[in-house]
Amino acid sequence: MRNTILWTTLIAAVIGLTITAQTATLHVSAETGGSVRKADGSKENPWKDLQVALNKAEPGDTILVAAGNYLGTSDQGYLLMTIPVKIFGGYTTDFTTRDVLKNRTTVQPSPEQNATSRSFALLSIGDPSKPRSFKAETEVVIDGLFFDRGFSNGYHPTKGKPADVETGMLVNPPGQGSNGDADRVTTVAQPLLYFANGFGDVTIRNSLFANGANYAIRGSWSQGTVTLKNNVFVNNTYAAVELAGGGKSGEFSLKVECAYNTMLFNWARTNDLGDMGYGYRYMNNANTDINHCIIGGSTLSGLDRTRVESMKSDEDKKQTGAENNGFFLNKQADLTLPSGGGKFLRVWAKDFEDREELYKYEGNVELSGELFKGKINAAYLDGFISANNTETVLLDRNSPANQFRSAFGMNLQAEGSTKVDMFANRYPLEDALKLFGAVDGKGAQLPE
After folding, report:
1. pLDDT of 318 above 90
2. CB burial of residue 17 (10 Å; 0-12, 13-18, 19+)
3. Are 284 and 314 in contact (CB under 8 A)?
4. Predicted pLDDT at 413
5. pLDDT exceeding 90 applies to what percent of the chain?
6. Mean of the pLDDT values across residues 18-24?
7. Contacts of 119 (CB under 8 A, 6+ apart)
8. Per DSSP, which regions of 7-61 are E strands?
9. How many other C-beta atoms can be found within 10 angstroms of the C-beta atom of residue 272?
10. Are residues 336 and 301 in contact, defined by beta-carbon separation less than 8 angstroms?
11. Burial profile 231-268: b = 16 or more Cβ within 10 angstroms, e = fewer
12. 8 Å CB contact between 9 and 2
């Protein structure tokens, strides 16, 4: 009887602790905050460093972030989330008012950070060196953060620079270029945001991903629902989003909803425009719905559905949907599929209904350019539309090398040169923000 009473009392105490446990709200302000030793993260005494809040937080805590540029501890150039928290940017320094477009909360490194950040995304969810270690029993939220590598990439000073575009073309990583007054700037080959194969639900909304030289969002996630809603992706190479399921093959334990996002100027992998260049890539072991998005200006296609599950039974139950989206100026197609003959199959939005790979397919349209007047940077758009990738091949049969090859019956060798008019030139942040609310009912809307 005595043992029963003791166990009953202990259980009641544990239940009581669970019920009364409360999460905290932490505060960060680059302008008015203090150091880790002098501040306490309160509204009256915020930290100046967002990474401090990420390190100090407990699971489920909320971090409110005021306007400013946040580059991690000692301005190292990246942020690391190892504990599930909710981050809300866009606050005034007194944390009484929130407006994500006016009070801009940015993660925007300069070339000075490249030496310490070249191995990291601007923000990693989970520790990249410890995959599958991140387990979120409470939802992760990233709301109102603007990620931009436009001032830390290397750009060619003159090559591939259309009139009135801010920079020359992007120098592919790990090549070096210039950026403003800085020379020998090494382009970083990391995504803007990285998923390190963890567990739990993640929501990313009202955020901006600009000028990424190696994807905007990339990675894998073992289990949970990832919601990408009301974000702007502009001028990213490879793809805007590539997110695979990291669990067991055929489980489809990752669900992705991509809704009301604008994905614009999705460039190829390299400046020869030879491959890649997608808005969203449907990846293996993930069920994905894409709806009410604007996907345009892709070097290859708006959507990529070329990844096929290893087992036909898994492929048959995989769910990939695309409905009520708006497409425009995707150079080769709105949707790319494998053809079975070694080539890609190009499909436009009007023919989505014929594709059984899409379990949702209705309401997709081609958008008129009139909708984007005053919203898209006109010089950038003109450069993109006019850009050509031309190759010149010169065969000199009388060169010493070719005379030698001819004597021995070898194939002759030609010299070639490639000219690209434009490639992933920096897109201005001010203009990127104009894409919020550009088209009523499709793409990113004005944040509430």
Report:
1. yes
2. exposed
3. no
4. 61
5. 77
6. 65
7. 190
8. 25-28
9. 13
10. yes
11. bbbbbbbbbbbbbbbbbeebebbbbbbbbbbbbbbbbb
12. no
